[in-house]
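Q: Can someone sanity-check these two? First one:
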Amino acid sequence: MSQSDRVSEHRILTGKVVIATHNAGKLVEMRELLAPFGVEAVSAGELGLAEPDETGTMFSENAAIKAIAAAEASDLPAFADDSGLCVDALDGAPGLFSARWAGPDKDFSGAMARIEAELAKRGATDRRAHFVSALVLAWPDGHTELFEGRVFGDLVAPRGALGFGYDPMFRPDGLDRTFGEISSEEKHGVDWQSGNALSHRARAFVTLAAACLRRPG
């Protein structure tokens, strides 16, 4: 069954959900985003679930692979994020391979240096880039829902030790600080009255929350 065949009407998520990630940074962000909704979150890593091979050709496909695998293995609803940095002058790279550019040791300082080297190799002066996040929420019966968010900005010399991944080199539009220089609360905090959010993952979560979550009380 294809992902499009699995998607139907929105379901309300309650009780316990599996966050299908082994990435500590993503886990912290997702738990904080879920906190206002009274949903208990357990990670795939805490359940000892294996990481499936991410064989998709789009962020949404890889997110679905992870969410569906976790939902089937745990018999609980699960949601997964697949995200990455897309650099305009590198034809969207590293994109789907953002984590792989960091290598098995998750050396993102090396990955950021590689981006600079690739830009220099091309003689590129365009520093525009954007982060993409695809969130897929899956139930054990195969039902899935997809939500996406993007944030646009410029690449700068890495600054700041906050955040994770490529955050230190990404300065979002409208700010003079990188994602590596802002607190987690500012990066993925949500103004629930307006629905405004800064990060790509928070923006995707806003649409998920509007469709599938309800505040207690």
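And here is the second, same format, sequence then tokens:
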Amino acid sequence: MPEAATDAAAAPGTAISIRGLTKRYDRLVAVDELDLEVAIGETLALLGPNGAGKTTTVECCMGYRVPDEGTVRVLGHDPRRDRAALAPRTGLMLQEGGVYPHAYPEEVLRLFAAFYRAPLDPEALLERVGLTGSRRTRFRDLSGGQQQRLSLALALIGRPEIVYLDEPTTGLDVAARRSTWELIEELQADGVTVVLTTHLLDEAEQLADRVAIIDHGRLIAQGTPSELTRAEHPRVTFTARPGLELASLSAALAAPVTEPSAGRYLVDADNEPELLVRLSRWLAERDERIEGLHTGTSSLEDVFLRLTSEDAEVVP
């Protein structure tokens, strides 16, 4: 059997190369001339609001969707044409579904393991994701968090070189979330390329080597978490009761104040001592309790909210 064709233009050390990717659904442009590269062994967090084009991009990388324009190359291969060559080298964790509801975790893992030449040990993997006690529980009867952990195990059973993780910690409790982070960090240490889609900005900051923010199918920012937050000038953020009088507070501080999310306020000014005094005085006069205060560069959440909000204003 001849070896599947590869793309000679793929740069050495590149796991995923996306050039001018455009995908439409009728009149909706889901992905709009997207250019993006992921290095071998890199963890990329793909961030964006709902409907930004993240899932469609991953589906094109997996060969599930055909681009209307542009090219996608994964490990030098066309993911649609060379799916047979790529399937043993990639893993995909779906956010939900994908498992027969009457199947048991143990039998599903053993079935998937049979598809690969050198799979991980199903028993050890069940233990690693905390499902040993649920090995004979039907998938439909597992909790949402347990289903997530099984989906993660299925993505890893074949020892993939690239793994796509779609919201991997959704529905997990704190301990299971931390365990999942540790498992992803083990993948990173083994040189596995990870593409992570998440709505949890602290997760992206913790795990990602690089962050790509997509909105309306377009790449609007990318860089390491520290690069993206360092680019922002120093600001003051605090948490308090949602719905404070922003006009009055802005006037008292002589600086713009916004509420990018409920109860989370951003003061667009340097953290001078006098500014903090005025803020404390304004809150005290109204008997408002401050729950948290941060000074310095913006968080990744601040950057994300600002960029996606600004982009939404210019896109019809």
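A (reply): Looked at the second one. The radius of gyration is 23 Å. The first strand starts at residue 14 and ends at 25.
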